[in-house]
């Protein structure tokens, strides 16, 4: 009897060593691109098979609104997600956000049916949360102010 697993038990990497229903992901909450105001939220035992980007946004908003460390981030209307890096993948030289892959690493916030794993998100993936207009302005003129 053979069963199909969504994780690797033989020679697992951190990205494939856990099932998609029990992943650890890091959300990089970006308040300001020019000033590099970024704070991480780490979700453990997160179910990538059942959660959509809207669900992830709700979970992030709940943490931002309930944890004191995120008090300065509460005045930003976060509305977008973009994959920053995959486990074992290359990292961008930009410390705030990945400017590459705008066509395939931005999560569609209007599609509630598409789940996180369908965007290629696995265990140990880092995702940026930000305000879309701020990203567009910063990408047009990526000037750091500190």
TrEMBL record:
This is Altered inheritance rate of mitochondria protein 29. It comes from Zygosaccharomyces rouxii. Pfam families: DUF2340. Belongs to the UPF0538 family. InterPro entries: UPF0538.
């Amino acid at each position: 009897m053979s069963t199909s697993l969504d994780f690797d038990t033989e020679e697992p990497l951190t990205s494939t060593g856990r099932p998609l229903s029990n992943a650890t992901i890091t959300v990089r909450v970006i308040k300001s691109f020019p000033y590099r105001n970024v704070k991480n939220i780490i979700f453990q035992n997160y179910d990538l098979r059942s959660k959509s980007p809207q669900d992830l946004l709700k979970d992030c908003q709940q943490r931002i609104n309930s944890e004191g460390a995120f008090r300065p981030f509460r005045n930003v209307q976060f509305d977008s997600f973009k994959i920053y890096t995959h486990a074992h993948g290359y990292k961008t030289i930009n410390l705030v956000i990945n400017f590459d892959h705008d066509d395939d690493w931005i999560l569609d916030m209007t599609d509630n049916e598409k789940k996180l794993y369908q965007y290629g998100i696995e265990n140990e993936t880092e995702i940026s949360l930000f305000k879309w207009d701020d990203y567009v302005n910063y990408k047009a003129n990526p000037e750091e102010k500190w």
